[in-house]
Amino acid sequence: MKSFLKKTYHFLFNESTRIQIKKQQIKLKGLFLKGNNVECNCCGKTYKSFLPFGNSERRENAWCPNCGSLERTRMLLFYLKNETNVFDSGVKVLHFAPEEGLKKIFKQLKNPNDYKNGDINPNFADLLIDITNIQFEDNCFDFVICSHVLGHVPNEARAMTEMYRVLKPGGIAIILTLLNQKDQPTFENPDIDTPEERLMNYGESDLLRLHGNDFKERIEAAGFEVEAFDYTDRLDKAQVERFRLYNPQRGIIFLAQKMES
After folding, report:
1. Residues 83 and 141 placed together within one structural domain of the fold
2. Which 3 state secondary structure label does DSSP give 72?
3. Within this chain, do residues 87 and 173 fall inside the same structural domain, yes or no?
4. DSSP secondary structure, 107-134, as one string
5. pLDDT in tens, 2-61
6. How many CB atoms are closer than 10 A to CB 176?
7. pLDDT tens digits for 90-123?
């Protein structure tokens, strides 16, 4: 019966409509969380707590019901505003799999010619973009933002090469991914090919690998110079707690710079 209802729902509503329905359902949950214990810097809303989020392990107090931001989203916005000129006029940005809260801010602050966002699924972005075959010319972006994308891409090395290609010399790719916390190298096995197996081995049902302590080197192999850090270490503890920013398994920033030629 449950399977029949799901199939009927999918038949009646296309994916774009289903996404919008889900967003409204999540916002309704926020009505029961009125308060001022936590705050989202992406949309400005405050709540008694955020919603839980996660696949294999549910993270409490993680998910903003209004804009959908997660710990890493809010942390990344603090980094972008505090440490970069990404929002300045004329600075060109390419944003993969854009987070709804961040995309809205970028589109409010940036000229459309300076901000492009895309996804392999056009229901989640303004443009259809294959990260392994980016349709833009060489050397045209100052920043590429790529958060929790590469673990889902079959040809990860090609994706990194493409990001390097479209960045201007001196340009920066800001990369985040799910990391193995056991100090082990990246694990991937093509025989792990069902959602259930991927969830068990990688932590998410649609991941193709679980990145490990060699992820920095994997990015460097594309030609980048890479620095990795946890930005919450540079923020006030009270700020980290109020905005719920801490999640080292998913929030390490890999700052990858294309060197001047």
Report:
1. yes
2. helix
3. yes
4. HHHS-TTTEEEEESSGGGSSEE--TTS-
5. 565 555 645 555 666 666 666 676 776 767 789 999 999 999 999 999 999 987 678 999
6. 20
7. 999 999 999 999 999 999 999 999 999 999 998 9
Question: Which is nearest to 212 in space by CA: 184, 237, 250?
Answer: 184
CATH number at residue 217: 3.40.50.150
The answer to whether the predicted template modeling score (pTM) of the entire model surpasses 0.85 is: yes
Name the residue range of residue 43's domain: 2-63
- Choosing from 39, 63, 87, the residue where a domain stops is 63
Q: How many residues does the chain have?
A: 261
Instruction: Determine the residue type at 130.
Output: D
Same domain? For 143 and 35 the reply is: no
Q: Are residues 58 and 78 in the same domain?
A: no
Confidence (pLDDT) at 33: 87
The 10s digit of each residue's pLDDT in 216-261 is: 999 999 999 999 999 999 999 999 999 999 999 999 999 999 998 6
Helices (H), the chain: 2-12, 15-30, 71-83, 100-109, 156-166, 195-202, 215-220, 237-242, 248-251
Q: Tokens at residue 124, please?
A: 């989640």
What is the C-alpha to C-alpha distance for residues 247 and 138, in angstroms, rounded to an integer? 34
Structure tokens at 111: 């000229």
Query: Do 103 and 57 have their domain in common?
Result: no
User: CA 145 → CA 77, 102, 115, 117, 181, distances in Å?
Assistant: 11, 11, 11, 9, 23
Give CA separation, 260 vs 74, 164, 200, in Å.
31, 12, 42
Question: What SS3 state is found at 243?
Answer: coil
Q: Per the structure, how many domains does the chain have?
A: 2
